[in-house]
Structures are given as structure tokens and as C-alpha cells.
Amino acid sequence: MALQQTLISLQSGPVEVRLARVLEELDRERQAVGEIQRSLLPASLPELPGFEMSPYYQPSEHASGDYYDVVPLIDDQWGFVMADVSGHGTPAAVIMTVLRTLIHAELPNNRDKSAGEFLERVNRVMCETYLRDSRFVTVWAAVLNPVSRRLTYASAGHNPPRLLRGGSVLSLDVVGGLPLGFDPAASYEDASITLEPEDLLVIYTDGITEAMREGIDGLELFGTEGLDRVLSEYSSDRACDCTELVRKAIAAFTNDATPTDDRTMLILRAISKDFTDSRFV
User: Fold this and answer.
1) Domain count, the chain
2) Which contacts of 128-134 are long-range, i.e. CB under 8 A and separated by 24 or more positions?
């Protein structure tokens, strides 16, 4: 391995030169892991009849633990996943890669349409095999029927999505239980909602609301209040405009500081009443 060769080379040369070699090799390896991890995220999102989607992803390091996906299911339904692995860097990216593999193996065969039972199956495998040393994963998962607009969802310790409806910002009902990795016998309850035309659903990781800056009394968080304020200002008919609105608001709040946590968001917007129109932006 290149890093091992670099460590061997530490036996010769000035201390500063040796240290620089190691740091350069570590940085190259982090970049390589980050590139692999980013390649596992969706290169593009599918077209869903009557809906449009817009993603936003900004890792805090070369390799991150945030993950989102939209997966085709049986009976023309769709699975949604937003996950956040504890920690950052290479270990988080490795766990995220394992999680993605499990999701693509389990979710398409989710015949019972229960997001909660899907989380229970994934949690058992993660607890028994992969999540050790106090690592855990928060996950929000959902199954969408694009014809009826019925969204069935469950949460494993993940922050609830925001719903913009009729000019008001609401929180989806808080459901679920422990993050993945705490208890192999954990159970997760389903909740459901029927999305209405022009509804805007914002699914995100806590890096969005925990974006921070220095304030008079210490660190200030962007917070759920900041996100809701931005969403209430949204007046476009395109999901990507809302994504850009949130991105700019966070950049202004943090003065474009380097993120201290991964920032990931997926916006789902209902756009038609007859279920025949579809766009991806």
C-alpha cells in the first residue's frame, strides 16, 4: 500500500520532509475514499410521474457519511432514503457504503410496503455485523405511491422532514425509534401522509440545521427555525430554486465557512393533479 511505503521512508530524511510525505499520502488516500463514496450517490434521480426532485450535497471532508437515494420498488412504487453515519472521514464512508449495499438489496423487495419493517431488517444486519465501537446511523426511509401520492415513512433517530404546504411549514409526525446500531431488536413504526399538489417535502441531514457561526454569546446554529424561514420565502414552481435558496442562506449565515458537518438535502415537489406530468430538475 502506498501509505505503508511512505511510512517506511520515514527512516531517512529531515523530520519536516518525512512528516510532509505522510500528510500528503494521507490526503491522497482520503481523496480516493471520498471519490469512491461520492460515486455511490445517485448520478441522477429518476423521473416520477407528478413529482420533481432536487438534491443538494456538500461533504465536510473528502469522505463523508451522508447518503441519500431514490430506489425503484415493485408495483411502480419508489423508496426514499436519507441517512447520516456518525462521525466523518474514511470510517463513516465505509459504513455508508455497506448501508447502501443493504438498502439496494432489501428495499426493492419490500413487498409489505412498510418502511418500518425495512428499517428493522437493515438494523439487525448492521448491529450483528457492521456497527461496532459506538458507531450508529440515523435513517429516514419512505415508500411513495406516485399515483395515490401516499407516502409511508419511518425514522431511525433521524430528524423529521419539513413539509411546505399552502405557505406554511410543517414538520412530519415524529415517528420511529433508535438509530441503527443500538439494539438489534429495535422496532420502527410507520406513519403516512397523502401529498397534495404543490406540496414541497424537504428531507435533510442535521448538517443543514446545525450549520454554525460565531455569535455574540458563542456559536449560533442555523437551526430548524432558519430552515423554516427560508422555506417560507420559497415562491417558485421549481424544486431546484428551493435547493438554491437554502444553499445561499446557509452560505450567508456561515460566511462561506468550511462545513463542520456534511450537508445533504433532497427536495420532493408534487407538481400536477393528473399524475401525468413529470420533471427532474
Assistant:
1) 1
2) 128/184, 130/95, 130/98, 131/95, 131/180, 131/181, 134/86
Amino acid 166: pLDDT: 92
* 25 found inside a domain: no
Q: How far apart are the first and last CA of the chain?
A: 41
Low-confidence ranges of the chain (pLDDT < 50): 3, 7-8, 10, 275-281
**pTM of the entire structure?**
0.85
Q: Is residue 278 part of a domain?
A: no
Whether 278 contacts 50, CB under 8 Å: yes
Whose grid coordinates read 417535502?
A: 201
Beta bridge partners of 164: 169, 200
Q: Is residue 32 part of a domain?
A: no
Contact call for residues 61 and 34 (beta carbons, < 8 A): yes
Domain that holds residue 86: 41-270
Rounded to the nearest angstrom, the gap between the alpha carbon of residue 198 and the centroid of all alpha carbons in its chain is: 23
Strands (DSSP E) contained in the chain are: 51-58, 66-72, 78-85, 137-145, 150-156, 162-165, 168-171, 191-194, 200-204, 212-215, 218-221, 263-270
Yes or no: say if 54 and 114 are a contact pair by the CB < 8 Å rule: no
